Amino acid sequence: MSNKIGNSLKWSTAGEVISKLIAPVTNMILARVLDPADFGILATVNMIITFVDLFTDSGFAKYIIQSDFDEGDDIFQYVNVAFWTNLLLSIVLWLLIYFFRVPIANMVGSRGHEKVIVIASIQLILTSFSSIQTALYRRFFDFKSLFIVRIIISFVPILITVPLSFVIRNYWSLVIGSIVQQVVNALYLSLKSKWKPGLYYDFKKLRKMFSFSIWSLMEALAYWGTTWFDVFIIGVAFSTYYLGIYKNSLNMVNSLMQIVKASFIPVLFSTLSRLKNREGEFIHTYDVLQEAAAIIIIPLGIGIYLFRDVATLVLFGNKWLESSMIIGVWALSSSFFAVFVNFYGEALKSKGLPKILFLYEVVCLIFMVPICLIAKRYGFWVFVFSRSAVVVGQIIIGALFMKRYIKYPIIHMINNVFPATVCSCIMAIVGMLLVRAFPNGLGFQFVCIAICGFTYLLMMRLLFKEKLKEVFDILRGNDPCAL
User: Fold this and answer.
1) How many whole angstroms separate alpha carbon 375 and alpha carbon 369?
2) How far is CA 443 from CA 239, 310, 427, 438, 456, in A?
3) How far is it, in rounded angstroms, from Cα 268 to Cα 274?
4) DSSP conformation letters of 68-108
5) Which end of the chain has fewer CB atoms < 10 Å from its terminal CB, N or C?
């Protein structure tokens, strides 16, 4: 287990770092070629696809990762049932999208874009091939294979999407690039996997999986609501232009956060699932990984907020300057969201508590929906700030759920983020003083960023030397349980 965790973290981190370094470069080019409205149309398409894809997976992937199986071919029998069920559901749901394309487009604020919704939704059938395979790789800690495919598909936008954007110059280049990525992902994972679909089906196994997965599905639906409700509101209440600058800003920030977050989250779930009956190791592993993630993510979020104008110019160009505040505010809130809320979800899922996670998401939705509905009445920018502030409520609600259902002490969470928060605040003070003293000059802004980064590392080195060492140990592939 020690070797598996360490190697998994190493490959997961490497895959995310490399792929997420490529993604911003691609987006930087696309943002200068395409208009914000094109990204707005893509956002509505992705909202539909992610919603429907929840039903095609039905939570079976989580069941395969989290559950204990009998010896022999028992696990592969369940995998066969999950695969054929997913494939059939994806075909049926794609046909429903085709027949109801007009009302669906009208409902999400994309009237006249029915064709792109239908064609983009072909991805649903492709993901039915890859989702179960990905679950198997994660269950067996084969993150090296996932690393390789992440690298391969990360080059698809550069080789396909970007060239097409110069020729087509609209959202079709984004849609075609996404479909090609899913084709490559499904082919690689299927061809390399030791498991191949077999002519086996058992309704008893389906019922058993579904009895577990129904709550996982309900939780995923609720999570989709908290993730996409703001996109739905902007698409309906404002315009594709505002939806484009909003969603593309969020995507860029999330892709930067994912460099660290997605390195920890898949490994966290797989590891905690194996340790779910060993309380001491479970809590210790959670503590160490949350602390390590906080040390990297929190200063990143605060740094992007401080230098949001520079980030916007570099990432998007002059015509996207209106999105500067969105990038800054979302980076600040999503850094704490990643460290707290994402970790809550993995802990509850690994303990086999999908009902509790569903309840948590519902409570968060009840908290978020009225705030967003009221905020949209006062304009786009009030909505942006209100949506970001909702994260504070999600963190507090999640902490109470963790204490109640996992017996996880709230003081642990505070201790885990304390080093990163203290040093980030010192860094922020230095950054604000530098920006006020020398407000002009893009070149000097980069010097300020370097000084802030050095300040943060220096404070960590002086005040929390051992904590910083733990992060480097984990990123080198050492087992967090042993730290």
Assistant:
1) 10
2) 35, 10, 19, 11, 21
3) 10
4) ---STTHHHHHHHHHHHHHHHHHHHHHHHHHHTHHHHHHHT
5) N
Distance CA 123, CA 440 (A): 46
CA 223 to chain centre: 12
Exposed/middle/buried for 414, CB within 10 Å: 0-12, 13-18, 19+? exposed
Chain position carrying tokens 């059938």:
125
What b/e sequence results for 435-444 when a residue is b if at least 16 CB atoms lie within 10 Å of its CB, and e otherwise?
A: beeeeeeeee
Residue type, 137: Y
Neighbouring residues of 395: CB distance < 8 A, sequence distance ≥ 6:
336, 337, 340, 341
Q: Could you tell me the residue ranges of all domains in the chain? A: 2-482
Q: How far apart are the C-alpha atoms of 177 and 184, rounded to whole Å?
A: 11
pLDDT at 43: 84
Distance CA 211, CA 209 (A): 6
- Amino acid residing at 180: V
pLDDT digits 0-9 by tens, 418-465 = 999 999 999 999 998 887 776 666 778 888 999 999 999 999 989 888
CA proximity to 137, closest of 66, 67, 65, 83: 65
Contact 94, 124 (CB under 8 A): yes
Which DSSP category does 322 fall into? G
- pLDDT greater than 60 at residue 483: no
> Which is nearest to 205 in space by CA: 358, 85, 53, 33?
85
C-beta of residue 40 within 8 angstroms of C-beta of residue 239 = yes
Short-list 177, 83, 188, 179, CA closest to 146? 188
pLDDT tens, residue by residue, 294-316:
998 999 999 999 998 888 888 78
**Rounded Cα distance, 206 and 302, in Å:** 46
Rounded to the nearest 10°, the torsion over CA 182, 227, 337, 25 is: 40
Do residues 348 and 409 lie in contact, with contact meaning Cβ atoms separated by under 8 Å? no
Residue 365 exposure: Cα atoms within 13 Å on the Cβ side: 18
Q: What is the DSSP string of 263-275?
A: HHHHHHHHHHHHT
Name the one residue in this structure whose structure tokens are 């969603």.
Answer: 247
What one-letter code names the amino acid at 250? Answer: L
Is-contact 250 391, C-beta < 8 A? no
Q: How far apart are CA 477 and CA 5, in angstroms?
A: 8
Sign of the Cα torsion 172, 248, 93, 177 reads: positive
